[in-house]
Specification:
Length: 589
């Protein structure tokens, strides 16, 4: 391939390949986006389910402290100092209710924040005797009648959700509070899924529920100094170290989801991070999932797009190649046709030249014979003239008259011969279609060959139907017959005696003219090529191999045919020409 074409191909292919890559990248990105959006929607639905479970759990226990706050026994216990025995009874009562309600613990706190009785009184981590005045859920109950607060237990160190309800006397005076504590290990377990991380964060962004412990007590956003002070006062997370969780949003996906790079407990990873706020509690639920299917979707979409684009590219190249080939083929075809036309024209010119050359050659041969032929009468005439002069000188007029008559006959014969020669050498126009008698044409040809006939003295058998009307060019037909007769004479020259037969008769609506001889015939392997130009078996200088080729052409042109064969002792040529019926002599009978 020439280097310029290679360069052109590279220049064409390079942008196409870049285009394919771009397309693949775009398709990959688009597929990734769609897969992400799908996953985010799925995660959102899952989060709604989790939120529902959490909500149900909290709602179920919210009524418990409210009902207990109406209990006259508890109310009475807060109104006067308790004997040890009474307190013991209260402990047992709370223990029984707690067991029945499946809550984590129940506590009765007096107006100063001191725990009077608790369901966990038997345990070393019992709340009884501890002050919870600093806990927001107590302060909320005192201030607004009820409170809720998530915190790590200062006594038990077990985190839980505290729901409180104020206990009041008939006048509405604050007597103390009933508090129920809910712990969430059951919930965290039910959410446990290795593929997903589920978190609940409080209003400050601190994770306090997590289905994977390592994520618990992480800060999702930085805390202000006021936050720190409040946390210390309420001892909400007590001694838990609150570590920040480093994260960076890479892409937002809708309102509640994003693609984030997180420096989590398992190292730095990308997560699809969906969030759902829980308005009642001021909490937020989070679901983190590694977007594997997203990358796979992106890759396969990119590969599919690249594959499709490449297939299209190859199809285009193939089509282009096909078009080029078709153009080339059409060009070659046109070139071929042009060459064929050129060669045909050249051959036609050459053929015309050869026809003329053949005629001239024949004319040359005949001229030699005729010169010899004319010489004889000339010598005879000279002699006759000399004797005529003598006869006139001696006054023998009668004898002189006879001598002049002989001279006249000789001159007439010479004029006939030269007349034929003149017409024979002329190139006759091909289109001539005069009405003529074929038998007369035979006579003319024989007359032209007279010198040769006289020299060979063949046995001549003539059977000619007269008149044999046909249409054509007399001079050209004469040329055909001269060729056929001369070939027959040439072939039979060595025979003793040479025999020549010419038959002319009507057959199957045509004139059939046969020229046969006793010259030994045409060899079987030559029968197929005697009409070929330049085919000759005659010695160099004698035959041109054009006579039969030219004759064949002339006969065909007149709507007839010429064929060669062998019969008896020699060759036989058959010439067929259409009968011309136009001027049939009328029937006299
Ligand atoms: P040419 O006479 O110059 O050879 P023609 O075309 O007239 O060319 O004839 C071609 C050949 O056909 C002759 O050389 C000869 O071999 C063969 N041929 C033609 N006429 C006869 C015949 N009457 N008998 C045998 N062979 C013949």
């Amino acid at each position: 391939m020439p280097s310029s074409r290679r360069l052109r191909l590279v220049l064409l292919l390079l942008p196409l390949l870049v285009g394919v890559l771009l397309l693949a990248a775009l398709a990959g990105r688009q597929a990734e986006r769609q897969a992400l959006a799908r996953e985010a929607a799925q995660a959102g639905e899952q989060l709604s389910l989790y939120a529902g479970t959490l909500r149900t759990l909290i709602d179920r226990y919210q009524t418990l402290p409210a009902v207990l706050a109406l209990d006259p026994e508890l109310r009475a216990a807060l109104q006067q100092p308790l004997a040890a025995e009474r307190r013991q009874q209260l402990d047992r009562k709370l223990e029984a209710i707690n067991a029945a309600a499946h809550s984590s613990s129940l506590v009765l706190i007096d107006r100063d924040g001191l725990a009077l009785a608790a369901s966990n009184w038997r345990l070393p981590t019992s709340f009884v005797g501890h002050s919870y005045a600093f806990r927001p859920y107590f302060q909320q109950a005192r201030r607004q009648g009820s409170g809720r607060f998530y915190a790590v237990g200062v006594t038990s160190s077990v985190p839980g959700y505290f729901l409180s309800q104020a206990v009041r006397d008939e006048q509405g005076e604050f007597l103390g509070a009933v508090v129920v504590k809910l712990e969430f290990p059951g919930l965290e377990q039910s959410w446990s899924s290795p593929a997903e991380t589920i978190l609940v964060s409080d209003a400050r962004g601190i994770v306090f529920i997590a289905n994977q412990p390592a994520w618990r007590y992480r800060q999702l956003q930085p805390l202000s100094a006021a936050d720190h002070a409040e946390l210390a006062a309420s001892r909400q997370y007590d001694r838990q170290p609150l570590e920040p969780l480093q994260q960076r949003t890479r892409r937002e996906i809708g309102e509640h989801a994003r693609l984030a790079e997180v420096d989590g407990p398992q190292g730095r990873r990308d997560y699809l991070w969906a969030s759902l706020p829980l308005p009642g509690e001021g909490w937020t639920l989070h679901l983190l999932r590694q977007p594997q299917s997203v990358a796979a979707a992106g890759r396969s979409a990119a590969m599919a797009a690249a594959g499709a684009a490449l297939a299209l590219l190859f199809l285009l190249l193939w089509l282009q190649q096909r078009r080029r080939l078709a153009r080339l083929r059409a060009h070659n075809q046109a070139e071929l046709e042009r060459m064929v036309e050129q060669r045909t024209a050249a051959l036609r010119t050459a053929q015309d030249g050869l026809v003329q050359a053949a005629k001239l050659a024949a004319l040359g041969q005949m001229s030699a014979a005729l010169a010899h032929e004319l010489n004889q009468p000339l010598t005879a005439q000279r002699m006759h003239l000399a004797s005529l002069r003598l006869l006139l000188d001696s006054g023998r007029h009668a004898e002189a008259g006879q001598a002049v008559q002989r001279l006249d006959a000789l001159l007439e014969r010479m004029a006939a011969l030269t007349g034929h020669l003149k017409t024979f050498a002329r190139q006759s126009p091909g289109g001539l279609r005069e009405r003529l008698d074929l038998a007369h044409v035979v006579d003319q040809a024989l007359q032209l060959l007279e010198p040769r006939l006289r020299q060979l003295r063949p046995e001549l058998q003539l059977e000619l139907a007269r008149p044999a009307w046909t249409r054509g060019d007399a001079i050209r037909l004469e040329q055909v017959l001269v060729n056929l007769l001369r070939n027959a004479l040439d072939a039979s020259a060595q025979q003793t005696p040479p025999r020549l037969a010419v038959h002319l008769a009507a057959e199957d609506g045509q004139w059939l003219l046969e020229v046969c001889d006793n010259g030994g015939g045409i060899a079987a392997e030559h029968l197929g090529c005697v009409f070929d130009p330049f085919f000759t078996t005659k010695p160099v200088g004698e035959g041109l191999g054009l006579g039969l080729a030219v004759s064949y052409g002339i006969v065909r042109e007149l709507g007839g045919s010429l064929s060669a064969g062998n019969r008896d002792a020699g060759a036989c040529f058959s010439l067929r020409l259409p009968i011309d019926p136009a001027e049939e002599p009328p029937c006299n009978q």
